[in-house]
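Suppose you are handed a protein chain with no further information: no name, no annotation, nothing but its sequence. What can you learn? This example shows the usual starting point.
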Amino acid sequence: MSWAQAADAVAATCFLVGALLALIAAIGILRLPDLLSRMHAATKPQVLGLWLVLIGLGFRLREPETVGILVLVGFFQLLTTPVANHMVGRASIRAGQVREELLVVNELDGVIPGPGEPRGAP
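A reasonable first move is to predict its three-dimensional structure. Written in structure tokens, the prediction is:
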């Protein structure tokens, strides 16, 4: 087996596992009961799935310029996804969209004021 064939096999494996993780994230978004659980399901497997797809692309394309761009894409995804989900979570608590009975610990109780009037979708 040559280097190119081995790299293509690694790329195919990364593509399949990354697609499977994206499917698991989609199923989690549909099946989980509340907003915070759905956010967790959307973030964790989705980012790992994206990284696996980017690694697969790097092994498949094998060009240094392209691999550099893929590393930047993955790096910025790791930077922006937690911040975006943090802000969505805080906004959902402010809007009253979080089901308090499903929380084990609410560290933002008293830090973020509750909703003054109902906002957002039910």
